[in-house]
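Sequence in, structure out.
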Amino acid sequence: MKKSAPMISILALGVFGIITTEMGIIGVLPQVSDELGVSASTAGWLVGVFALVVAVTGPFVTLLASGINRKAVLATSIAVFALANAVYALTTHFEVMFAFRVIPALFHPVFFSVALATAARLVPAANSTRATTTVFAGVTVGFAFGVPLTSYLAEHLSLSAAFWFGSAVNLIAFLGILLFLPALPVEQRLSYGAQLRILRRPSLWLTIGSIVLLFAAMFSVYGYFAEYLEQVTELDSSWVSAMLMAFGVVMIFGNFLFGSLLQRNTVRTVIAFPVLYLIVYTLVYVLGTSSVPMIGAVLLWGVVHSGGLVVSQSWLGRDAHEAPEFGNSLFISFSNLGITLGTAVGGWVVSTVGIRELAWAGAGFAAAALIVIVLRLRSGLPSPTRSGAETAATSPEGVPA
């Protein structure tokens, strides 16, 4: 693990750069609207189109890239993100920025899928979960620091400075991949048919269904985090900003906590995750009107929230391990579908019954996810046969799939 640590850290930095590019624009939309001369609703498409392209094209683009040297795929993908940020910094035309939201979105699932699979291959099988958890740390650090820093630079320096920051991060990751990552040719390329064959398994679709519901549970409430704290808890904007930062910081701790739990026992951790969310949302509802207790609830919420990525990816990886990169692309696409579903339902709850009841929407999705997970475990549909090392890495206590 020590020998591969620099390479895995570079992959995590690349993920940080991609998340900063993808999500950082949320905090600078007002400046984008002003500088490019478009309405706020039009500028909002820069966020929506990215997620839509990722969700729709992810598995197909990953399939097309499955026979290409892994190092070349990673380097090309991250270079596209560096270029896109440079274009954001220089352009004065909304149409150009829109196009360069679509282009990197095509490479987003490819980089994530290949980076996760590469991290697992760079270490012994018993350390694969720890390696992928480290790569996922790039996501949580991106939310905790990359997104707020982008907003800070746009507010205190300039919009172009915020985008040059994103470009620099991705450029450093690009250079790191070139310098530290060995050539990774595809030694045994799986045919498109062999990769697509995993979609025939009913067990895989039950797993995918649970992932959609888990992400809907996470983002049906998180998508309205700031509004909830302002309207229900009645915190002012400075406190809301502090809570957003604190939420991101504790996510870093939670990411490694769940990685450790997964390494001990995947199945029990997956079952526990929606249960923990039911507890969190109950606390959010009960304590929502009390500012001091709500701070504690938010910190717990952040720790649990961080587990969604690594828990879901590990869960899906059990049913897609023969085609790990294609499986990772399915995870990315369907998690984005869950985010879309969750935010849509959350918005409907807010507009119809009020934001005070929002926690119950998340709890409902969490309960549904738990039911599907239990159905998957009790269905009698086993995961594909694994080698002893893989089994040890994902389920050391011998819990059957």
